Amino acid sequence: MNEIPKYLREGYLSVEELKKYVGLPSEERLRQRPVAVPECPQEIPCTPCKEICPTNAVLMEHPNAVPIVDYEKCVGCSLCVQICPGLAFFMVHYIGDKARVTMPHEILPVPKVGEKVVLLNRVGEEVGEGKVVTVIPREKSKGDTPIITVEMPIELAWDVRAVKVVRE
Amino acid sequence: MRLTEHPILDFERVRGKEITIYFEGKPIKAYEGETIAMALHAAGIRTFQHSTKKHRPRGLFCAIGKCSSCLMKVNGIPNVRTCITLVEEGMQIERQEEKPALPKTTKPPKWKEPPRIEADVIVIGGGPAGMMAAINARDAGAKVVLLDENPMLGGQLVKQTHKFFGKREQFAGVRGIKIAEILSEELKRRNIEIFLETSAIMLLQNGEEKLVVGVRKNKELIEFKGKTVVVATGAMERMIPFENNDLPGVYGAGAIQTLMNTYGVKPGDRVLIVGAGNVGLILAYQLYQAGVKVEAIVEAMPKIGGYFVHAAKVRRLGIPILTRHTILRAEGKEKVERAVVAQLDENWNVIPGTEKVFEVDVIALAVGLRPSIELLHQVGCQIKYVPELGGHVVIRDSRMETTIKGIFVAGDSAGIEEATTAMLEGKIAGIGAALAAGVASPEWLKEIEKAQKELEEFRSGPFGRKVLEGLKKVVVE
């Protein structure tokens, strides 16, 4: 029997696995402008990310292929983050000593711009606090999913993939 | 126990007029358009009956009219499937105890000729497969009639709040609930006659002619006569053996989705999910969205069976997935109060000393489905046991025609797969049925071929392998 990859035993990708399966953008590219990163390492029959991309930056040889992003072609428009049925696309952007991570947020409440939120890593652990800088509400999202961009310390850019909104 | 806020759904908008029903004499608030079982749940009532021999409490299990655990006495009539029977003002609901009898005053209905509805194609089932079959059969030139035993169209789509996979022209990126709306609209636009709350209880054939016997709202007999029939009756939730698996609070995953996503009723406060296939993973995410705590998902296999992306979605919200774990027993008196799980070794044996106790009031079983083939079985279609497709399925050709000419099958009743493949199979079966009825032009063969190609493409990845193995055993030319 084939060795079962760790992500299929645990249900989340480590950054090492992410590097191995989809590759990561260079530091230089991350500083230029937001870049889309697919966290989708498994062959499933699904193509909306490729179909919606305005610059053909999402590469997929066949409908079951793992999406690979040509980071140079990606313009950081976030349409893939909005449409992805698996909520598996994210955008990352480095600005100074901060990182901005764009992610789907289908949970109530949807945070407001400027609001402080608790940052969650891939296993739901609280790893810090971030600030919401952009919100695309559900009505304006191409995929009926609200997406938010959260500013956080740069060292958390590759850990944080969800937020919790805590209001008094 | 009712949900008011939800990130995806708007229950205030869909809830009908407030009415009162009576449970064992006590008034209960209900809303028009919801089923009896849902209203009882919203009022915190979970025990619907007691078993006849050992008097064990029983509650809801499947919530789509396919099992018998929700049978109750309604207005004196026993054995009413409360999960698919709509509430009505002043209804008297009672728990069913012992062996229920009809009230003494009940007289058999007077015999009269039932109304007879004639069509070219009769479609049984209003889920994704049935709706697509009806739409395409109509477009191909057939007069179509569709019946479904549920009070609303859409089948299981009406509770699928997640976005679908596949290609965008196959509704990828669109939520299941939205697809149900789109397809219902398409049916209405084509003036296809639809019979809801109508159970197909018999499928017969007389030469070339097909007859479906339907019962509407538990009382009215209707005959449907057609040249061809598409059976798209879906599937039934599986159960697994463990101690106290009959306690109220042990539900099929679909029942929980029906409660919270279709009717906005909170299924409980803390949930354990058994099974990390797509259904279990999606359910966990939906429970979180509804504000319900998911303690864990347990999975007996050494790996997550569903799409990884669904697993990642629930993990980042802090929901643990325990692979190589199984449920040992449910605990509780009248309803689930705890679940005990344990780790499995490589030979699937429980490792002593690894028991964990979860304080939960709901146990969701997401352990697979089996095709509903009762009607096909009864009319005499050839059947084969194919585990890759979920159990017993019917032999058919590449146009979904069974071994009885003019009887077609589509969707989960043809083998357990996805809603996307159900829709494609529905299209093929619908056109096939119109062709077999002699009303469609041969041009439509091209549309069948197109759908067959799309199916092939959808199944061409690793997740389609098992299904393809299964299909080899049942598809004949």
UniProtKB/TrEMBL annotation, chain A:
Organism: Thermococcus litoralis (strain ATCC 51850 / DSM 5473 / JCM 8560 / NS-C)
PANTHER family per the UniProt record, alphabetical: FERREDOXIN SUBUNIT OF PYRUVATE:FLAVODOXIN OXIDOREDUCTASE-RELATED, IRON-SULFUR-BINDING PROTEIN
Domain 4Fe-4S ferredoxin-type: from-to ranges: 65-94
Gene3D superfamilies tied to this protein: 3.30.70.20
Pfam families on file: Fer4
Coiled coil regions in record: none
GO molecular function annotations of the record: oxidoreductase activity
Protein name stated in the entry: Polyferredoxin
From TrEMBL, chain B:
Residues in 2Fe-2S ferredoxin-type domain copies: 17-99
Domain of life assignment: Archaea
Swiss-Prot/TrEMBL keywords: Oxidoreductase
PROSITE patterns from the UniProt entry: 2FE2S_FER_1 (PS00197), 2FE2S_FER_2 (PS51085)
Molecular function terms from GO: 2 iron, 2 sulfur cluster binding; oxidoreductase activity
Pfam families for the chain: Fer2_4 (PF13510), Pyr_redox_2 (PF07992)
UniProt-listed InterPro entries: 2Fe-2S-bd_N (IPR042204), 2Fe-2S_ferredoxin-like_sf (IPR036010), 2Fe-2S_ferredoxin-type (IPR001041), 2Fe2S_fd_BS (IPR006058), FAD/NAD-bd_sf (IPR036188), FAD/NAD-binding_dom (IPR023753), Metab_Enz_Cyan_OpOx_G3PDH (IPR051691)
PANTHER family named among the record's database cross-references: ANAEROBIC GLYCEROL-3-PHOSPHATE DEHYDROGENASE SUBUNIT B
Protein name (Swiss-Prot/TrEMBL): Sarcosine oxidase subunit alpha
